[in-house]
């Protein structure tokens, strides 16, 4: 069933290139996207004159353009001596407007009204939201400016870059030709790396790009996929299942269980591996079913859309079906359009990931929250110093 949604073995996904033993050991069929990210970063990142390790925050998100709801959205963070640089990979859940600059289809763009409806940006930016998305809030908490789209003309990459593309997936075959797939996003990261070296000089660029010893990841589990307005609208058993497409939600739960096993394996494979894991499934399910507890009035229907639950993806009237309805106040809603949540959900979840504070529902962030991954300063041990050598068996993660 996973294969039907675009997953394949890591060797196939990488175009026949061989992976090294460590990545093969960590891979399982249901979680090739994790191995793909780790493997690609190791192959593509360039190690400087001394060993350095990228601090990674990989956000796995399901809130993406259907049917690519298993496409990963990834976030890569690297601390520097003076602050942090924030590099983001993913799909529509974190795209800040890269798809404004490519030839694509209306379903993969959000640079038209009513996107950006709350006025924070004064105009539609290409974010699939009524305002900001989760990485905008994380950047704010990390004391960084908004991270620019990679394709934005004259973008300043000193504080990072956002490579995400609405509709993108881990594999090039996902919406091929009309999105920026993950392998291409990682190639674009190399372009930024070279740009920073040219602008800042090699030594200063390395400060922006690397911090010795950090191997830090954040993983976001899948939400109840079947409760997206688009999938509610497609559910042939809506009257029996209360609206949610349970088969899709069960797939998400199976994925989440497998993810926990992979994280345990990665702890054994990579020295110093630290991660933030969050139960996004329970977190969002609680807000869908009990919206009033969290400041919402509507947890089922989309603010912008058409048909049952607002689940027909017509927001903005740029697609084949032109009709769409728009709610009066998006802050009352969990869902902005048929697939994507409102800014208010993005902000609440960003705070939960950042602070890692206990929630009233069964939701956890741990063993580290994002704040600790960004800002914790760690003491070097003798073992760290001994291990700090330029031998080729050291990899950037």
From TrEMBL:
InterPro entries this protein is in?
GDSL, GLIP1-5/GLL25, SGNH_hydro_sf, SGNH_plant_lipase-like
Decide whether keyword Signal is in the record. yes
Answer whether the UniProt record assigns the keyword DNA repair to this protein: no
* CDD domains cross-referenced by the UniProt entry: SGNH_plant_lipase_like (cd01837)
Cite the entry's keywords alphabetically.
Signal
Q: Name one GO molecular function term.
A: lipase activity
Name the family.
Belongs to the 'GDSL' lipolytic enzyme family.
* Protein name per its UniProtKB record: GDSL esterase/lipase 5-like
**Organism in which the protein naturally occurs:** Acer negundo (Box elder)
């Amino acid at each position: 069933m996973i294969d039907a949604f675009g997953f394949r073995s890591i060797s196939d996904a990488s175009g026949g290139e061989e992976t090294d033993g460590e990545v093969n050991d960590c891979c399982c069929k249901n979680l090739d996207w994790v191995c793909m990210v780790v493997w690609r970063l190791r192959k593509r990142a360039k190690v400087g004159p001394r060993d350095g390790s990228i601090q990674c925050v990989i956000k796995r998100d399901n809130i993406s353009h259907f049917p690519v709801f298993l496409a990963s959205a990834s976030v890569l963070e690297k601390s520097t001596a003076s602050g942090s640089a924030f590099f983001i990979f993913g799909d529509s859940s974190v795209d800040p407007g890269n798809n404004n600059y490519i030839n694509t289809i209306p379903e993969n763009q959000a640079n038209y009204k009513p996107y950006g409806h709350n006025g924070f940006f004064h105009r539609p930016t290409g974010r699939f939201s009524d305002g900001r998305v989760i990485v905008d809030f994380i950047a704010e908490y990390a004391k960084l400016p908004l991270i620019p789209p990679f394709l934005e003309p004259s973008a300043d990459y000193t504080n990072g870059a956002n490579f995400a593309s609405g509709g993108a997936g881990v594999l090039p075959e996902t919406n091929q030709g009309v999105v920026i797939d993950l392998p291409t996003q990682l190639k674009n990261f190399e372009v930024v790396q070279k740009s920073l070296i040219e602008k800042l000089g090699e030594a200063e660029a390395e400060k922006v790009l690397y911090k010795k010893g950090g191997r830090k990841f954040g993983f976001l589990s899948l939400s109840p996929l079947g409760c997206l307005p688009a999938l509610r609208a497609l559910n042939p058993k809506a009257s029996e299942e209360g609206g949610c497409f349970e088969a899709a939600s069960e797939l998400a739960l199976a994925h989440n269980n497998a993810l926990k096993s992979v994280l345990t394996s990665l702890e054994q494979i990579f020295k110093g591996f630290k991660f933030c894991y969050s139960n996004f499934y329970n977190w969002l399910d609680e807000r869908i079913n009990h919206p009033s507890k969290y400041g919402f009035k509507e947890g089922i229907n989309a603010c912008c859309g058409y048909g049952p639950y607002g689940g027909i993806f017509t927001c903005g009237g740029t697609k084949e079906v032109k009709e769409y309805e728009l709610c009066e106040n998006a802050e009352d809603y969990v869902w902005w359009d048929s697939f994507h949540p409102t800014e208010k959900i993005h902000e609440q979840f960003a705070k939960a990931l950042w602070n890692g504070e206990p929630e009233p529902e069964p939701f956890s962030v741990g063993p580290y929250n994002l704040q600790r991954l960004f800002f914790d300063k760690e003491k070097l041990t003798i073992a760290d110093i001994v291990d700090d050598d330029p031998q080729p068996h050291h990899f950037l993660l």
